[in-house]
Amino acid sequence: MRCIECGHDLIKKEKTYVANLDNCVIVIKNVPALVCEHCKEVYYTDDVFEKIETTVNKLKNIINDVAIIDYNKQAA
Q1: Is residue 28 part of a domain?
Q2: Among 36-40, 60-64, 71-75, the least confident range
């Protein structure tokens, strides 16, 4: 795959995803991503982003400060 921003190759890496919400911050570590080797743009597959979105939606109403979780250790 190629970066839509600059056209360079994407490489598989694990990144940290941060959701800054009104009432809290949710940090998800070790998220599988595709990262441009040139401009560092980060891309997530649909499956990965769906899991991120589900996790954030579950936590946003019960967390009042900061939550740090591991992508690989969360409940499905």
Answers
A1: yes
A2: 71-75
